[in-house]
Amino acid sequence: MSHTTVISLGGSIVVPDHVDIEFVNSFVHRMRDRLSCDTAWRLALVIGGGATARVYQQAARNMDPDCPPVTQDRIGIAATRVNAEVVRAAFGNLCPDPVVIDPTAPGPITGRVVIAGGWKPGFSTDNVAVRLAESLGATTVINLSNIKQIYTADPKTNTDAEPLIAITWSEFLEIAGEEWIPGKNTPFDPVASRRSAKLGMKVIAADGRDLDNLEAILEDRDFLGTTIGPG
């Protein structure tokens, strides 16, 4: 019986200021090894916008200071899809299917790797990951970004902020807020958080660049990160 792992791969680590080819190659190599060892395993990746999104969203705001959020979201969605195509290319024949653009209807899946980009305005790729997990029958999303753990507050502005090992969805929403803003820097999108809470889903937030730590998560060993789940 096959089983699927859904990973939300943050744009900040795929495209921090340009496509990080070394990281993408290392990530793909690790996942290829795991797929060859576990023939019942399927990997679903959702790719974020990163610098691709930020640069073009900022350009739009520079040209129109009143650029509406929906336009900025559409730019971000286009960026995620470009990034997703790059990662898809790196997986080669393991990902023969097109990039998924609607996580509620991913279509027939023939490959061992499924890759998705943005969906529609109003939320980030975090929500895409939750929706895709729902469609594929997964109950956990691994959210990889440029932070090692979620803190009680922003550690960049609050020296009293403390890292969290585990937190409930209601507690997390108090920290992250309830409103989605295009380009908002939050550990997990509030729209996705509310959906996850409703579904009773678990999200593991961790540093995406630490591939040894990712291996520990996938193997259910001790890892550095924060688990968000039902209370």
Q: What are the main properties of this structure?
A:
231 residues, alpha/beta, Carbamate kinase, 7-stranded mixed beta sheet, 8 helices, 7 strands
Give structural notes.
With 231 residues, the chain is an alpha/beta fold. The chain has one domain: Acetylglutamate kinase-like (Carbamate kinase), CATH 3.40.1160. It has helices at 11-14, 21-37, 50-63, 69-91, 125-136, 169-176, 190-199, 211-218; strands at 3-9, 41-47, 113-116, 140-145, 166-168, 202-207, 226-229. The chain has a seven-stranded mixed beta sheet with strand order 3-2-1-4-6-7-5, with helices on both faces. Helix 3 (50-63) runs antiparallel to helix 4, helix 5 runs parallel beside helix 7 (190-199) and helix 6 (169-176) packs antiparallel against helix 7. The chain is globular and about 50 Å long. The relative contact order is 0.16.
